[in-house]
């Protein structure tokens, strides 16, 4: 079941235009994809509130919606603007230029006017995506990375208009600036994209020599992006207005930089913490020792291992990990103890270990009376 547009925007059915606009702005800011990267639920909610606002902000569409619900406005860009509008199928299909059936219903039920406005509307440039790779140390300290990429930019000669300097685009004489042309066939009045101006609503008699009337030219883009300290592998940085140029002076798209952090042989990253594995021998594990470690920041720190430390034990050094990207301070350095057993032993080492092993199996006890010579023989006492 379709969701109620008023409920989506959180307003009553008798809300004023100002109340609807205010509610929409708050929700759009909350659910905008740029504020919720990768959140599919937020993206879907953003789409829904846009549809709701598009209908309720237009008095004619709102009247149709109040009478017939979503069926009264579904699929149309401009429902109920005269003609046979006002029924449960008002609004047509809002179709592409080549969609004959969309054009037919759009004109029949009053959608041609809004379609023309859509043709004349400014079109924002496309977004661009590039990828960069940084080391873990660079992710720790931050880095400025130079980018080289191709993109379209507004033509400098005509300032994006497409017309030769000294001239101006003029209103299309065929569609009179609407971007649509209408014709009748019997009972039906049909509409289609203007073939002369391509739906732009204007024509260029003297195209710019540099861009040949496109208003845009392709160039090799150069940009330096600042990678902040603490950046995560897979993070995306957005640089507003550095994408493809828009048509005829429209805003440019955005540049999205996907960051990959290369694995480091010394550290394993766990969110803001770093895990370093350090090997110790049997004697160090039994007796305890002190390790000196080099941190990701380049300084050294000492950590004391207690006697009897076990294989796999984790010891934490505070504030020696990665910077926190969305907060203050740093994560921790976690040292994972690894017991290293020698693969080869000298005869003396084997003898000592065997003696040590026997001592574990036969713990020292107070010898009974008359057996001192046995213990002297075993322990070499004089």
**CATH top level label of the domain at 123-169 and 204-262:** Mainly Beta
Largest sheet, spatial ordering of strands: 10-11-15-14
Radius of gyration (CA) equals: 37 Å
**Biggest sheet layout:** 4 strands, mixed
**What gap, in angstroms, lies between the N and C termini?**
97 Å
Q: Indicate the CATH architecture of the domain at 123-169 and 204-262.
A: Sandwich
Quote the CATH topology of the domain at 123-169 and 204-262.
Answer: HSP40/DNAj peptide-binding domain
Number of strands: 15
- How many helices? The count is 10
The H-level CATH homologous superfamily of the domain at 123-169 and 204-262, spelled out, is Urease metallochaperone UreE, N-terminal domain
What can you tell me about this protein's structure?
This protein has 382 residues and is an alpha+beta fold. It contains ten helices and 15 strands. Among the domains are: 123-169 and 204-262, HSP40/DNAj peptide-binding domain, CATH 2.60.260.20; 268-339, Urease metallochaperone UreE, N-terminal domain (HSP40/DNAj peptide-binding domain), CATH 2.60.260; 351-379, no CATH class. Helices cover 26% and strands 24% of the residues. Strand 4 and strand 5 form a beta hairpin. Helix 2 runs antiparallel to helix 3 (40-56).
Give the arrangement of secondary structure elements.
Elements: H1 5-9, H2 17-31, H3 40-56, H4 59-68, H5 100-108, H6 112-120, E1 128-134, H7 136-141, E2 143-154, E3 170-171, E4 180-185, E5 188-193, E6 202-203, E7 216-227, E8 236-239, E9 255-261, E10 268-270, E11 273-280, H8 282-287, E12 289-294, E13 300-305, E14 314-317, E15 333-339, H9 347-361, H10 372-379
Parallel strand pairs: 1-9, 11-15
Antiparallel strand pairs: 2-7, 3-6, 4-5, 8-9, 10-11, 12-13, 14-15
Helix pairs in contact: 2-3
């Amino acid at each position: 079941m379709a969701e109620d547009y008023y409920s989506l925007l959180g307003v009553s059915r008798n809300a004023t235009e100002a109340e609807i606009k205010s509610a929409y702005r708050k929700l759009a800011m909350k659910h905008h994809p740029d504020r919720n990267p990768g959140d599919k639920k937020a993206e879907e909610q953003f789409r829904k509130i846009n549809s709701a606002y598009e209908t309720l902000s237009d008095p004619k569409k709102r009247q149709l919606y109040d009478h017939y619900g979503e069926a009264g406005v579904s699929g149309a860009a401009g429902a109920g603007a005269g003609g046979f509008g006002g029924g449960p199928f008002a609004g047509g299909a809002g179709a592409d230029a080549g969609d004959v059936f969309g054009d037919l219903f759009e004109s029949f039920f009053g959608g041609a006017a809004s379609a023309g406005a859509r043709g004349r509307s400014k079109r924002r440039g496309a977004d661009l995506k590039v990828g960069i790779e940084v080391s873990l140390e660079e992710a720790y300290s931050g880095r400025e990375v130079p980018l080289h990429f191709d993109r379209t930019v507004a033509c400098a000669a005509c300032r994006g208009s497409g017309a030769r300097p000294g001239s101006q685009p003029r209103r299309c004489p065929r569609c009179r600036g609407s971007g649509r042309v209408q014709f009748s066939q019997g009972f039906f009045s049909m509409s289609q994209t203007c073939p002369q101006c391509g739906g732009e609503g204007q024509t260029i008699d003297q195209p710019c020599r540099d861009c040949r009337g496109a208003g845009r030219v392709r160039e090799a883009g150069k940009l330096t992006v600042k990678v902040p300290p603490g950046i995560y592998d897979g993070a995306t940085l957005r640089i507003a207005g550095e994408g493809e140029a828009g048509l005829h002076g429209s805003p440019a798209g955005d540049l999205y930089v996907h960051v990959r952090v290369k694995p480091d042989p010394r550290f394993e990253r766990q969110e803001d913490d770093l895990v370093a594995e350090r090997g110790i021998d049997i004697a160090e594990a039994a007796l305890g020792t002190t390790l000196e470690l080099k941190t990701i920041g380049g300084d050294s720190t000492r950590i004391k291992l207690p006697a009897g430390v076990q294989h796999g034990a984790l010891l934490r050094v505070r504030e020696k990990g990665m910077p926190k990207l969305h907060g203050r301070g740093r994560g921790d350095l976690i040292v994972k103890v690894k017991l290293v057993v020698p693969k080869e032993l000298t005869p003396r080492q084997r003898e000592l270990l065997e003696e040590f092993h026997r001592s574990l199996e036969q713990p020292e006890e107070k010898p009974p009376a008359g057996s001192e010579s046995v213990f002297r023989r075993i322990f070499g006492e004089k």
